[in-house]
Specification:
- The chain has 507 residues and is of the alpha+beta class.
- The strands form 7 sheets. A 6-stranded antiparallel beta sheet has the order 12-13-9-11-10-14.
- β10 and β11 form a beta hairpin.
- The radius of gyration is 27 Å and the shape is elongated.
- The chain has 10 helices and 25 strands.
- Helix content is 20%, strand content 23%.
- α7 crosses α10.
- It folds into 4 domains: 120 residues, 2-Layer Sandwich (Alpha-Beta Plaits); 116 residues, RRM (RNA recognition motif) domain (Alpha-Beta Plaits, 2-Layer Sandwich); 111 residues, RRM (RNA recognition motif) domain (Alpha-Beta Plaits, 2-Layer Sandwich), CATH 3.30.70; 74 residues, Alpha-Beta Plaits (2-Layer Sandwich).
- Keywords: Phosphoprotein, Repeat, RNA-binding.
- This is RRM domain-containing protein.
- It holds the Pfam family RRM_8.
- One of its GO terms (molecular function) is RNA binding.
């Protein structure tokens, strides 16, 4: 039986073009420079017990020995269809020509053995007769602890699809905690993502993932909306305001009495409790560079602009109504969730626009609250763009006023550090909060103003203690969105410009 010795790296040259002959030793290539032993072991763990490890850091390679050839075969065949990513580097997996590993007492190997012992002590995996893990449920239960920033269905999809094909996601709030059920195409992907992601932070020092296997083996998704999605059934209705999963099925999933779970008791896009401050100014625009434990270091980018790259702060908005939408209208609406720097409606595809926010956190907030909302009869699709800035047209190039720079606009809501607007960010709702109302303006004036655009005014109420503020309830969320766009900053006389935002209250 040939063996590999820790000091004798010359023997490893033959492994680069290893024949596909199964062996319980697996050869890993193109590893990132700063990879650690635990991350390498993590690649093998879903497939069986890792019995030995040899790191060749200078060559960006490693060898993993599993406890049986069958487990190694499962690992190599799985990674032939799903390339593993570590810190955004694709890692290549193949059989080694060596049948077993022999390691020595060099410092490198002592460290590798210590990491192996630590992982094996923690890993109480259920194993079958071959010593390979028994197939787990493809459904994961995910709890997000310390929810400082919104975590949307899109964010979860982006993170978890790094590890396999995501079929379905259901999100809900239970006991004040944001949770999700996520179904993969196979149990192996679920195992791999659980091992890689459990305990990781989505954003710097917050939004910690707690992952366990669900008792369910399949999810029944009835609606495709911001709380649930079946990626295999794009034809499903949105079922607005319906709970995404029937309560009995969810109760069965968690072994509890029916009726205890509400899909979103607060009615907000993420089930935030009343008065929840999404962010206070110190956390805006944090960089993840050099912060261990944040998913950016694992190559899960494009989440919020809080990544080492410094900012996904440009949004792509599609399915707009080209007849009605203007840069100003997008500036006012997206300005509810952050300071809009530039807007560009695409010249050749006017149903699409690029919107540059002042930082990635604000882009994430705007995306999580506005994706799927209706504007001028169409449901907007809001995603993160690959662009880092919105280019202004070159001098002398006319673009029909489709690109606007708002970087010096006096209408930015979040310019002042500590602005109380941070704690008044709510999802679009039919009820609008009005402020800066001059004393001479009465209820009839404001009802008449908001009805003048053709919308229905259902109810109106001044604040008892402060008549500069009022609530006005429109006929629908879509009408409220269009009224906010039209009447925010409306001149009411006496040097008072009306301020309009979405309210969490109803009248």
């Amino acid at each position: 039986m040939s063996s590999a010795n820790g000091n004798d790296s010359k023997k490893f040259k033959g492994d680069i073009r290893s024949p596909g002959v199964p062996s319980r030793v697996v050869h890993l290539r193109k590893l990132p420079n700063d990879i650690n032993e635990t991350e390498v072991i993590g690649l093998g763990l879903p497939f069986g017990k890792v019995t030995n490890l040899l790191m060749l850091k200078g060559k960006n390679q490693a060898f993993l020995e599993l406890n049986s050839e069958e487990c190694a075969q499962t690992m190599v065949s799985y990674y032939s269809s799903v390339t593993p990513l570590i810190r955004n580097h694709p890692v290549y997996v193949q059989y080694s020509t060596h049948k077993e590993l022999k390691t020595d007492n060099s410092p490198n190997q002592v460290r590798a053995q210590a990491a192996l012992q630590a992982v094996n002590a923690l890993d109480g995996e259920v194993v079958g007769d071959m010593g390979c893990p028994l197939s787990q449920s493809p459904v994961l239960r995910i709890i997000v602890d310390n929810l400082v920033y919104p975590v949307t269905l899109e964010v979860l999809y982006q993170i978890f699809s790094k590890f396999g094909v995501v079929l379905k996601i259901i999100t809900f709030t239970k006991n004040g905690q944001f949770q999700a059920l996520l179904q993969y195409a196979d149990g192996m992907a679920a195992q791999h993502s659980k091992l890689s992601l459990d305990g990781q932070n989505i954003y710097n020092a917050c939004c910690t993932l707690r992952i366990s296997f669900s008792k369910l083996t399949s999810l029944n998704v009835k609606y495709n909306n911001d709380k649930s999605r079946d990626y295999t059934r794009p034809d499903l209705p949105t079922g607005d305001s319906q709970p995404p999963m029937d309560h009995q099925a969810m109760a069965a999933a968690f072994g509890m009495a029916p009726g205890l779970i509400s899909a979103s008791p607060y009615g907000g896009a993420h089930g935030f409790p009343h008065g929840f401050a999404v962010c206070s100014p110190p956390c805006v625009g944090l960089s993840m560079a050099g912060i261990p434990g944040a998913l950016a270091s694992m190559g899960v980018h494009g989440l919020s602009g809080l990544t080492a790259a410094g900012g996904h702060n440009v949004l792509l908005v599609s399915n707009l109504n080209p007849e009605s939408v203007t840069p100003h209208c997008l500036f006012i609406l997206f300005g509810v969730y952050g300071d809009v720097m530039r807007v560009k409606i695409l010249f050749n595809k006017k149903e699409n626009a690029l919107i540059q926010m002042s930082d990635g956190t604000q882009a994430q907030l705007a995306m999580s609250h506005l994706n799927g909302q209706r504007l001028h009869g169409r449901a907007m699709r809001v995603t993160l763009s690959k662009h880092t800035t919105v280019q202004l047209p070159r001098e002398g190039h006319e673009d029909q006023g489709l690109t606007k720079d708002y970087s010096t606009s006096p209408l930015h809501r979040f310019k002042k550090p500590g602005s109380k607007n941070y704690s008044n960010i709510f999802p679009p709702s039919a009820t609008l909060h009005l402020s800066n109302i001059p004393p001479a303006v009465v209820e009839e004036d404001l009802r008449g103003l908001f009805a003048s655009s053709g919308s229905t005014v259902k109810a109106f109420k001044f604040f008892q203690k402060d008549r500069k503020m009022a609530l006005i309830q429109m006929g629908s969320v879509e009408e409220a969105i269009e009224s906010l766009i039209e009447f925010h900053n409306h001149d009411l006389g006496e040097n008072h410009h009306l301020r309009v935002s979405f309210s969490k209250s109803t009248i």
